[in-house]
Specification:
Strand content: 15-25%
Number of domains: 1
Order of helices and strands: EHEHEHHEHEH
Oligomer: single chain
Radius of gyration: 16 Å
CATH architecture: 3-Layer(aba) Sandwich
Helix content: 25-40%
Structural class: alpha/beta
Distance between the termini: 10 Å
């Protein structure tokens, strides 16, 4: 089982990283983590190169990420919430996945293999309210284009007051979700 993680936090040991670590502790197989802040991926320029060609006209680190997406059995997005959305470096990676949407308009293009996916989001605001709504829409949209089935999500609010590391309920949910992914991989 190959799992590709897109990590969208600038903080090396913040709440998002702690949540991701708890999830990964129980996960079987090969795990590759793409740190959005270190990935050096330029934003999409809507040149429409991908409407007629596989890949992207921009030659940067995204070129090495495309094959990892193809090969992955699981796609995980782990991100903090910034002003109700996801941080810009992670959004740049998502936007550069336009080539997967464009595969629908390229003749004879094969679809990506079916994958499982998980969303792990942390927000500092005290109430769940709508702080995850925009990120949820964006992430579920890209997961659809990457041909994934959402196996589960964990959205944690109030992390400014109660860190993930001290939230036993969230830690337990992370472990349970990774075990669910392991179980799914043994069936498939």
């Amino acid at each position: 089982m190959k799992t590709l993680v897109f990590f969208g936090s600038a903080r090396k040991q913040g709440n998002t990283k702690n949540l991701l670590n708890k999830f990964l502790e129980q996960l079987n197989g090969e795990i590759k983590v793409i740190n959005a802040y270190k990935s050096k991926v330029e934003p999409c320029i809507d040149c429409r190169y991908c409407w007629e060609n596989q890949g992207c006209s921009i030659k940067d680190n995204m070129q090495s990420i495309y094959p990892l997406i193809d090969e992955a059995d699981n796609i995980i997005f782990a991100s903090p919430i910034y002003f109700s959305g996801i941080p810009a470096p992670l959004k740049a990676i998502i936007d550069r996945c336009q080539t997967f949407w464009s595969s629908k308009v390229r003749p004879g293009e094969e679809k990506l293999k079916k994958k499982k996916s998980v969303l792990l989001l942390c927000g500092g605001a005290p109430s769940f309210n709508k702080q995850f709504a925009a990120a949820d829409i964006i992430l579920k949209s890209i997961l659809k284009e990457l041909n994934t089935e959402l196996a589960g999500h964990i959205y944690v609010s109030n992390t400014d007051q109660v860190p993930v590391s001290k939230n036993k309920e969230v830690v337990e949910k992370a472990k349970e979700l990774s075990l669910k992914i392991n179980k799914c991989s043994t069936k498939g």
